[in-house]
Amino acid sequence: MDFTAMEHLRGRDFISLKDFDGRSLYQILDVAQRFKAMNHGHIPHPHVLRGKTLAMIFSKSSTRTRVSFETGIWQLGGLGQFLSSGDLQLGRGETIHDTAKVLSRYVDGIMIRTFDHQDVLDLAEHASIPVINGLTDLLHPCQVMADFLTIKEHKGSIQGLKVTYMGDGNNMANSLMFGGARFGAHVTICSPEGYLPAQEMVEQARGVAAAEQGTEIHVETDAVAAVQGADVVYTDVWASMGQESQQQQRLQEFRAYQVNQELMAHAKPDAVVMHCLPAHRGEEITAEILDGPQAIVFDQAENRLHAQKAIMALLMR
Ligand code: CP
Ligand code: NVA
Fold this sequence. Notes:
By secondary structure, the chain is an alpha/beta fold. The protein has two domains: 4-139 and 304-316, Rossmann fold; 142-300, Aspartate/ornithine carbamoyltransferase (Rossmann fold), CATH 3.40.50.1370. Helix content is 42%, strand content 13%. It has a five-stranded parallel sheet with strand order 7-6-5-8-9. It has a four-stranded parallel sheet with strand order 2-1-3-4, with helices on both faces. It starts with 21 loop residues before the first helix and ends with a helix. The mean pLDDT is 98. The site of norvaline (NVA) has 9 residues, from helix 6.
């Protein structure tokens, strides 16, 4: 594979979609599609990461992120090392700074899933190798790369589509706003009062949209108005990792924001339904919708593998 047009991505961190222009993100999607075609055609991948190691630090649970990164780097000829933060000296008080410096002497990239977004920024500042954000309380950029790859596959093009996100103004909502702004989709985030994304994030995403293709970023509290004319209806859990104690209260407050048959009647007839997973059937989405014909959630989950291979190949070569 020829990566010469993508040399500018080598060595960079992947922390927010805000940090990359739309052209670069589309280049990553193109590489992801090529990797996907290789998997589906049973063609072995070029070992562009032969001899390279990715340290994968997890302070939160994961199925998709862990398995897709570990499998992905292996397919590219490299090694993924699963590191639970509780087992690292990090969990006993060793600083992020020292951890960053030490790991930079051993491995070629660090993927981290943690709570505080600032920890990822600190890690990146003190590491001399690429740092990839595998989810923080603020952002989940790798998920959104897989999401827009999936949208592109199902809709042919991303430009001008209306993507409506129903639910908590969380890491997914924030990253979807940046993704839509970069890839050229209109994004509406619909949450109950008190759970909308932070105004600062909305303003930043609007700034990105203005610098790219001028798409619109809306926030909305009316569920029916939000899904009107939507091409994509997206949802996520009402209580994210770390918010377990608020689960019962959130169940009450988010009730009117469930993605169900009645709500989907207001979206376009050919609208697709997305969820980053894991899902709670009967809460943010009904089983009927999640397991029904409009849902493309397992394509999304599969595309984590291909999108991340592209990210690792372009950053870590
Ligand atoms: N969507 C996602 O990131 O899944 P995991 O929490 O299983 O990694
Ligand atoms: N918002 C969810 C996403 C999980 C992939 C969480 O942070 O738990």
